[in-house]
Amino acid sequence: MGARCPTQSIIRVRPASRHSLGLFVDRVIDGDTVELTLDGQVRPTRVQLLGVETPILGSALSPEPWAIEAAWALRSMVEGEVLRVRWAGDGEPDRYGRRFAMLYREPEGTLVNLELVRAGLARVPEHHAFEEEPVFVRYAQRAEALERGIWGERALVREPDPVPPAQGAAPGAEPEAFMPEPPAGGFTDPGKPADASTTSNELLYISRSGSKYHRATCRYVTENSQQISLADARAKYEPCKVCSPPE
Fold this sequence. Notes:
Blueprint: E1 4-5, E2 11-12, E3 18-23, E4 25-30, E5 33-36, E6 45-49, H1 67-78, E7 83-87, E8 100-105, E9 110-111, H2 112-118, E10 124-125, E11 128-129, H3 133-145, H4 196-200, E12 204-206, E13 212-215, E14 226-228, H5 230-236, E15 238-239
Parallel strand pairs: 1-10, 2-11, 6-8, 13-15
Antiparallel strand pairs: 3-7, 4-5, 5-6, 7-8, 8-9, 12-13, 12-14
């Protein structure tokens, strides 16, 4: 299928004009959906991560391969963390009631959406058009080339434990979203590479006139920034103090 996930319905996302600061995730629904409570609201708001599409978690009996890993990867990155939410457009729901956003983990500024793509746990849907799309696509292509996650030959085979129906639920009622047990061996936060080999695979960027190198998610990276290897970056440039790339 490739790094892009095609669809017939195109959602044109306007540049973000609204940020929400200091938020915490109440619940992770699946690999690309969370619930969080906004200021002045009593009920949590369901938010879909912009620019990513992870395998479908579905019910306890039928998760798609890598759906469990994606959900736990997202949970490991956001649980208990302070987040900055950058809403797509004006932040209001679309005609289907969906709200899309970029999630940044503070204070280091890790773009959670992009880390899922980099770890090979998400595709980039073609029905999203957004500012960082070229960077997301490059990371997805690299994950595919390295056969990470959903792009590898190994498909997760797991017999999940059956989930009993909720007490008082009507027969045949749709089961609530669930969070399964972590994948065997646990899951390392993809926003915090576990070893040097993982770190060295990260895409880094420099500007034509700058003296520092940056992560792809850094606010100083533009369409005119040039890609650079970690070895070359170390030899000629200093790491950015804002995005804290590997040194």
